[in-house]
Amino acid sequence: MATTHARAAARLMISPSVILLLGWMLIPLGMTLYFSVLRYNLLMPGDNPFVGIENYQYFLTDPAFTAALINTLALVVGVLAVTIIGGTLLALLLDQPMWATGIWRILVIAPFFVMPTVSALVWKNMFMNPVNGLFAHLFKSLGLAPFDFLAQAPLFSIIWIVSWQWLPFATLILLTAMQSLDREQIEAAEMDGAGALSRFRHITIPHLGRAATVVVLIETIFLLSVFAEILVTTNGGPGNASTNLTYLVYAESLLRFDVGMGSAGGVVAIILANIVAIFLMRAIGKNLDA
Amino acid sequence: MGQITLKKVRKAFGDVEVIPPLDLQINDGEFVVFVGPSGCGKSTLLRLIAGLEDVSSGEIEIDGRPSAELPPAKRGLAMVFQSYALYPHMSVRKNIAFPMKMAKISQDEQNRRIEAAASALNLTEYLDRKPGQLSGGQRQRVAIGRAIVREPAAFLFDEPLSNLDAALRVGMRLEISELHKRLATTMIYVTHDQIEAMTMADKIVVLRAGRIEQVGAPLELYENPRNIFVAGFIGSPRMNFIEGPEAARHNAHTIGIRPEHIDVSATEGDWQGRIGVAEHLGSDTYFHIHDTGLAETVTVRASGEVTLRHGETVFLTPQAEKIHRFDNEGLKQ
Ligand SMILES: Nc1ncnc2c1ncn2[C@@H]1O[C@H](COP(=O)(O)OP(=O)(O)O)[C@@H](O)[C@H]1O
Ligand SMILES: [Mg+2]
């Protein structure tokens, strides 16, 4: 296997897929970079002159950008907090011996299989609608004024909807981690005088660290680019209250037809995502070492 | 104090009775070994005493107090698990400190006990390592350290040496024996290895299918086994069992004779056979003798220099006073 010959052959064999993958990645990236330095607005046909970093200047100084940046981070952090904490509690519950465990598990996992657009629409129309939603009925039956979630707490509502979708994923990963915890460790802690809470805090939580890290890393990748849920519920509004970076890029390039500006936004989003990734790996990457 | 009394203790998992009602008295300061084949209920019995399993019926008294309502932590017992069950994310120091932290012992006292345990167990250099960075023997010592610092009324060991290699096992066996001499605390030790039982125990409890076959000091069991099971289980190599006319000649259904109680001669003796495999241990040689007409093989020990070879004919003479006679139910006559 390790002869020079075999290695050369191996490289040759995998080259088509590597080249395909690289092309798949590099060509769109290159084109985005290229468009981002052009004045390229579909509403103003003509030649597309090179304008350097003008698009970036406009994008970064746009008040919508700061708002979108904060919203993006709030969305990621909010959903992570809800799914990790909620997922741990649910996993703890599902780990208990109980009646019809299989059915409960399937029920808990189900939201993961619902498309983002569908689940967002269900939440928007069936739960959060201020006239017909279940929450409105609930509020009214309690004698309270209905609360218009999507208008009055748009970002919170979106965090809620996205958390609902990602909770099963976190629960599943944390549940498998919990089930891999050595029983003898728990028993040893029990003999050492640790009550249920101490055992959870000193044994279970550290044991879940690695799984939680995986959940955080994977979810972050997807949460930085939440889009469908915003599009079908609030359209980024009111104002910019629920616009994240992805939605801002969409608004620039497809609502205002400014391809140059949209591309610049895309590049900024890529850079930010990488900063977040580096930061995350620094902060919790050591959990992944054996 | 560490006196443990089991009264009619019974344990069943669902319909399966793993331990039929059983009585046992363990005195303060004793080193008691539960020995028996795999699956005979040794661990279950230990876990019942520890409180990790509930008894199905009967009572366990620790220092005269009924323990039924006491959770494991309140029984004052410390357990060393077969898998060591160290906390992988904590350093050795934190592992050892954990039971004291749970008991809210002052930091100074904690440090004092950790230092004492670490120096007794040769762990001082490793206090800041994680369990994953230690060898099997060191992990074993950490587990023992974690038990010692609690200053328990009794130690419970569940096959603590079974994951170690042979040389280390002998070393740890001695260390645990020395620990017992030094602390003079009650220890209950579970093993399937009769050599561990013989070398360490003050009192051996031989178990089969959850039932106590015999309780006694090691030599008592060796010299005076109550039945065929104990006779065959204690002693290495195993006792030879002979049935048929030769046994009838001794007025027994079965007779048993240990390999070390048979004299070997090239010229004369009561029994005649042909040498099969010879195991040379240096000090002793064990011969497996075939074609004696008594049993499939008869194992004998010849000490010192032996000139006998494979295939040769030998004569065997059992030492008359060392013959064990058993009736048709396997009980000693
Ligand atoms: N939690 C349990 N549920 C059902 N059966 C069990 C359980 N624990 C042990 N047993 C059974 O009890 C018997 C004794 O087990 P154990 O005490 O572990 O044996 P030993 O330690 O002597 O090898 C075995 O037959 C085992 O299958
Ligand atoms: Mg066992």
Name some characteristics of this structure.
heterodimer; A: 290 residues; mainly alpha; MetI-like fold; 13 helices; 0% strand; B: 333 residues; alpha+beta; Rossmann fold; OB fold (Dihydrolipoamide Acetyltransferase, E2P); 2 domains; 6-stranded mixed sheet; 5-stranded antiparallel sheet; 9 helices; 18 strands; 32% strand; globular; binds adenosine-5'-diphosphate; binds magnesium ion
What does this structure look like?
The complex is a heterodimer of chains A (290) and B (333). Chain A is mainly alpha-helical and 290 residues long. Chain A has a single domain (53-289), classed as MetI-like fold (Orthogonal Bundle). Chain A is built from 13 helices and no strands. The longest helix of chain A has 33 residues, at 4-36. Chain A is globular and about 75 Å long. The mean pLDDT of chain A is 88. Chain B is an alpha+beta fold and 333 residues long. Chain B folds into two domains: 4-231, 3-Layer(aba) Sandwich (Rossmann fold); 239-326, Nucleic acid-binding proteins (OB fold (Dihydrolipoamide Acetyltransferase, E2P)). In chain B, 27% of the residues lie in helices and 32% in strands. Chain B has nine helices and 18 strands. Chain B has helices spanning 42-50, 92-102, 107-120, 136-148, 166-183, 194-200, 218-223, 228-233, 245-249; strands at residues 4-13, 16-26, 31-35, 57-62, 65-66, 77-80, 154-158, 186-191, 203-208, 211-216, 240-243, 254-257, 262-265, 271-280, 284-290, 298-303, 313-318, 324-326. In chain B, the strands form four sheets. Chain B has a six-stranded mixed sheet with strand order 6-7-8-3-9-10, with helices on both faces. Chain B has a five-stranded antiparallel sheet with strand order 13-17-14-15-16, with no helix packed on it. In chain B, β1 and β2 (16-26) form a beta hairpin. In chain B, α2 packs across α3 (107-120) and α2 runs parallel beside α4. The model of chain B has no long low-confidence stretch (mean pLDDT 91). The interface between A and B is medium-sized, with 18 and 25 residues. The structure holds adenosine-5'-diphosphate and magnesium ion.
